[in-house]
Amino acid sequence: MTEHNCFDNDPWILKLVDFTEKLLKQDRIRIIGVCFGHQIIGRAAGAKVGRSDDGWEIAVMPVQLTAKGKEIFQQDTLVRPASYNGLQPESNHMTVNPPHA
């Protein structure tokens, strides 16, 4: 969790979004974001991000690559074991997916 929001326009967040946009335009770089990171990636890719109307959600969720994730990262897993349970606290989300998502 962070005290900052991915949709804020603080100078360091705008700089991070700009940097991430540049990374996304390069085919040779693969990036993955979790929580704040995935929202920054979404924002950089053109998604609308904001506060969830439902407020906070907290859950323990299994984390594993989808078929698309395996294709993108060219491997079956990013962690060992191949699946693990991750804590998911969140109040912000992508309200509209980026184009081509």
Model description:
With 101 residues, the chain is α+β, with helices and mostly antiparallel strands. The chain has one domain. Helix content is 30%, strand content 23%. The strands form two sheets. Strands 1-4 form a two-stranded antiparallel sheet. Strands 2-3 form a two-stranded antiparallel ribbon. The radius of gyration is 14 Å and the shape is globular.
What topology emerges from the helices and strands here?
Blueprint: H1 11-24, H2 36-44, E1 48-51, E2 57-63, H3 67-73, E3 84-90, E4 92-96
Antiparallel strand pairs: 1-4, 2-3
Helix pairs in contact: 1-2
Short description:
Helix content is about 30%, strand content about 25%.
User: Separation of termini?
Assistant: 25 Å
Structural class: alpha+beta
Overall geometry comes to globular
Number of helices: 3
Quote the average pLDDT: 82
Largest sheet, spatial ordering of strands:
1-4
Task: Sketch the major β-sheet.
Answer: 2 strands, antiparallel
Oligomer classification: single chain
Q: Which regions contain 5 or more consecutive residues with pLDDT less than 50?
A: none
- Helix % is 25-40%
Fraction in beta strands = 15-25%
Order of helices and strands: HHEEHEE
How much is the radius of gyration in Å?
14 Å
**What is the strand tally?**
4
User: How many domains, in number, for the residues?
Assistant: 1
